## 1
Amino acid sequence: MIEVPDGWQHKEDSLRRSFQFADFAAAFAFMSRVAVIAEELGHHPDWSNSWNVVDISLCSHDAGGVVTERDVQLAQHINEVLS
């Protein structure tokens, strides 16, 4: 069984989390930091941004669209960006 990182929900075959920031610039800066990590891991989130909110959904498309350890690892790294 997959261990769901703090703040994330395992819903509809993905890990999901919504992040709210002070403004658009802070949200975009967060996305930029996560993008660097995703490139390093070779695993990329499905995400959207609307002003100060970033919604992220993680699943492994190459594993049939389910949550794998790679998703958990990326979620943990994303949590570290916030700390």
## 2
Amino acid sequence: MFYNDHAPPHFHARYGVTCEFEATIEIESLAVRDGELPARALHLVTEWASAHKTELMEDWRLCRANAAPAKIEPLG
């Protein structure tokens, strides 16, 4: 997430050794808004995001208020 980013609430996911893939994912729908990730990576990202929607929305609120977001646990 970026501080004071534009709506709708979303996060950015990067994948690859040199981050050659990047996607913007809407938090509510988990839809890819922009960019792309390989299918397996996208599946893992959306699985993680689905489990942490409430925390992602709270971090979105914090970032919009220029406050530091909380750490969210990785996919276990």
